[in-house]
Amino acid sequence: MFTLASVLFCFIGTCIGIIFGAIPGLTTTMAIALFLPFTFGMEAIPAFALLLGLYCGGVYGGSITAILINTPGTPAAAATALDGYPLARQGKALEALSLATLASFIGGMFSCIVLILVAPQLAKVALSFGPPEYFAISFFGLSMVATLAADNIVKGVIAACFGLFIAMIGIDPIGGSLRFTFGTIHLIAGIDLICALIGLFAISEVFSKLETIYRDKGLGHMEQIKGKFVTLKILKANAFNFLRSSIIGTIIGIIPATGVGMANWVSYNEAKRATRHPELFGKGSYEGVAASEAANNAVTGGAMVPLLTLGVPGDTMTAILLGALMIQGLAPGPKLFIDHPEVVTGIYGMLALANFFMLAVGLGLINLFVKIIKVPAKVLMPLVLIMCFVGSYAIQNSLFDVYVTLIFGIIGYLLVKAKFPIPPILLGIILGPLIESNFRRSITMSRGDMSIFFTRPISAVFIGIALIAMVAPILREKLTAKKA
Amino acid sequence: MKKISVGFMVAMMFFIGGLGMLSVAMQLSYKSAVTTIGGPATFPTFVLVILVFFSGVLVLTEYKKIRSGTYDTFKYEPGDFKRILSVIVASFFYLLVIEATGYLIATFIFTAVLMWLFGVREKTPFIVITVIYPILIFFTFKTLLNIPLP
Fold first, then answer.
1. Which chain B residues contact residue A155 at CB under 8 A?
2. pLDDT confidence tier of residue A21, bands split at 50, 70 and 90
3. What is the secondary structure of B22-73 as a DSSP string?
4. Which of A17, A98, A161, A441 could form a disulfide with B51 if both were Cys (CB 3.0 to 4.6 A apart)?
5. Domain region containing B130
6. Residue A376: which pLDDT band, with cuts at 50, 70 and 90?
7. Which among A339, A260, A328 is positioned nearest to A49, based on CA atoms?
8. Which residue on chain B is closest to A437 by alpha carbon?
9. Residue B1 within any structural domain of the chain
10. What's the complex ipTM?
11. Among residues B27, B47, B68, which one ends one of the domains?
12. Which of B15, B54, B59, B109 to mutate to test the interface with A (most CBs of A within 10 A)?
């Protein structure tokens, strides 16, 4: 498991992840999407070492700019800026950064332990699931993302359906007939997930950045890294805060469609409610930084639980990791624990190792990273665009894939302009084959009787929650409008 | 640029595209070997009907916004739209040129064009990145990762 290559890739991934997470405009999702093509020629464990390093590093990296320039590099660190920046302005930047690093490490390791303990048990339960349960869980995951990722539920549903439609192009997963290929041989294998991913999450971002790049004044004023490392006294005082925030982050990570953005706010608010010094929050509270950072990194292990045990990703980042499993020829879900236990163990190990690298790099090389993140976006964006094209070509050595990537980039850009959420599209593409094949298998099992989805308890519960999640916001909106 | 409602435009694209694809889906079979509803057309029809319904709702909502003058438009500062369009056109040209010249030559030119379009005017980073980056990518993919480039 811990080969030199795996350890090296994990380290490289963590460093690059921190850079992508720290620079506002570059995202963790973009980092994982861009570096996924590098894993094509690798074995499963080194590939996951790189990707999990990017994941953990990216979620943590946002705290650096949140503390030093009051602009979180990622939404995951939005709450960190509230107290981290005031601490930096008080000359305690190093204290805030080291506290954020330690909190991220504690949260990350806590969730990694939960993953190791919970995932095999859940996988055992999931082994008894049949097609109706899998259909219901996948439908639940997609509908949660469609309803929670969008301000407007109608746009969320449209985005999810668009993703499902993209997944239907090519060979029908059950009968093998061709659908929506329009006589083109290029479409027989369908639209490649990575092309859609790179286009929607990286190229569209480059186009969006072009709108502001000429007015971009860079990162602006950056507080100097001075002061001392966080003291043991502060760490001891935050011991319960670390635990509570790690639990919150892990639970939020397990629930689909929630993710790091929500975890840091919920945890921050809980810390504020529980503290004896709420007046310090927003003015430089150590507890605020610790709560936010422990929670967002605790999401990483939590989000891996449904991914590994059920094959259902909870957010865009784990959706890409699911794609990475598929690229490696591995079927995600409970059978992964039986057929490839060494890969599951490798994933646990690499997630833990990424957290250790994050700790070491965050505490030891912070000054170097601060220099790197000062590279202006106008230099970085062309490099990202070229990497997008080369990466999409590398999928099947086909220029057709590069055209598809570019077209998805344009579609993604237009959709962002029209305020459509992008994550439901990706989840639709990934979960589409799973939802359809389990839907049709269930229908075949019941000889066309649709009640099969509602007579089996697990399936009924998940479909019920999904339907309530979709209908409730619409009803709430109508009621609010009536009252007004 | 004219004031176009971006929401209405995208909603119409989904609505018309959805209807078109629905007509294609309906030509497939709804029957499977065992049931009358488990065929290759069933799921696409189900998804596309939802897509058409919701995009129809969105078309109406956006139309109401246009009538009341509260819609979102494509807002660009002078020059921004041209720059985005230039990058898109340059990207399509790059893909055409790469077939004829191969990766390295096309990427040297494309990197230089992109750097210029993104506003990099300082000589040193411009030259260094234009020369080194394509070679670095080539070396990484072809030599280290064993992934061929065109």
1. 58
2. confident
3. HHHHTTS----SS-SS-STTHHHHHHHHHHHHHHHHHHHHHHHHHHHT---B
4. A161
5. 80-144
6. confident
7. A328
8. B43
9. no
10. 0.92
11. B68
12. B54
